[in-house]
Amino acid sequence: MRSKFDNLLQVAIQWHEKGIGAVIATVVETWGSAPRRVGSQLIVSGDGKMEGSVSGGCVEGAVVLEALESLKDNETKVLEYGVSDGDAFAVGLACGGKIRVLVEPVGKQMPQKLLQELLDVISKDQSVIYEINIKTLQRRLVYNEYEDRVRKDRSGFADDQITFLNVYSPKIKMDIVGAVHIAQALVPVAKIAGFSPRIIDPRESFANYERFGNIEISNDFPDIALTKTRPNYRTAVVLLTHDPKLDDPALHIALKSEAFYIGALGSKKTHQQRKERLKNSGFTEKQIDRVYGPIGLDIGASSPEEIAISILSEVIATLRGVK
Description:
Helices cover 36% and strands 24% of the residues. It has helices at 8-17, 60-73, 85-90, 112-123, 147-152, 181-192, 209-212, 222-228, 244-255, 268-280, 285-288, 304-320; strands at residues 22-32, 41-45, 50-52, 77-83, 97-105, 128-133, 139-142, 156-157, 163-168, 173-177, 196-200, 216-218, 235-239, 261-264, 291-292.
C-alpha cells in the first residue's frame, strides 16, 4: 500500500541528476513500539533537504547526519538506534523501541539505472521487490517471488537474516458496490489509508461525481463491472446496496476471484439468508465463509461514518492477516 510519500524515489533521482546528491534511508528492522513500519523511507539531499520519515521524528536528525556522511564517503551503512521512552512519548507512543536503518547513496552504491527500473515498474502498478544483501551489498529487483510478502506488503529480512526485501506492491483497490451514504463516508477514509476506491452502481442519480468527487465510478450493473475488471489479490470488494438483486450477482463474481476481502452489509438474519442463497447457487461452505457479514469490525458503530471506519478496519486487518 502506498501513501503520500509515493514519489520519494522519483525525487531522489531528480536530486541525483541535478548534482545535489541523494541518499535513501530505509527502515529494515524494528523492535518494540517503533513509530514507522519496516520498509518506510526517508530521502536526504546533499544540501540537507529531507522528505519522508523513518521514525516519526525520534531519530531523523541523526539519520540525516549519517546520510550526509555516507554521501560524502560513498558508503552504504546499516545503523541501529534505540528510541527512549521519553522520545517515543513525544511522538505519540507509549514506549520506546529500536530500529535499524539502511542508508544508501544514489550513484555508485545504489545505481541510478536500478533505481529507475524500480520506478518504472512501480509506475506500471506492478509488484516488485528490491533485494539487497547487507553483507555483500549485492542488489537486484525480484519479480514473481515471495508471493506471501507481496500479498501482505510485508518487507523484511529473508530467512538468512542478511538479505533485506523491500516490497513494492500495486495500490490496493476497493470496489464499493452501492453508492449509498456509507459509501460516501468510506471513500475519503479509504483514500487516506492509501486505497484506490471505485464506486459501482447502475443508479446514476446515486453514483455520480457530485456525490463522490474525482474517483472512478462505474454505472454498469455490479456483476458486469466486476467481470470487466476482475478483482485480484490486491482488491477488497465491499457490498453496501442491501439489495440481493445487485449484491448477489456481484458476490458470485467476487467469490470466483482472488479478492483478499469480500464483505456485505446486512444484519445477521440477512447474512444467513444470503448464505442460503449462495448455497443454493452451488457455492461451497468454504467459499461462502469468505464473505464477511455483517460487514465491519464490531465496534458498536451506528453512524455512516463509524460504519465506514469499522469496514476499513476489517479490510486492513484481513490484509495484514490479523484475526
